Task: inverse folding
């Protein structure tokens, strides 16, 4: 699992940010890098808060372009 660079409180907030053209990237703490292109699972909000949402995101050139 990975996190987005912005600590979104909900999956809806992540989707809205992408629709509004906000640049969002992902990272994987302590486990290495994520691919620049492809699909990655993300969760939020960030630790130490309890994770309340999960999503599958599509990356292009390291940026989130689609949220499922």
Result:
């Amino acid at each position: 699992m990975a996190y987005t660079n912005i600590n979104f409180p909900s999956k809806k907030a992540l989707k809205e940010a992408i629709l509004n053209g906000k640049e969002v990237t992902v990272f994987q703490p302590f486990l290495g890098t994520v691919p620049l292109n492809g699909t990655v699972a993300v969760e939020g909000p960030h630790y130490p808060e309890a994770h309340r949402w999960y999503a599958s995101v599509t990356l292009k050139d390291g940026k989130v372009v689609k949220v499922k």
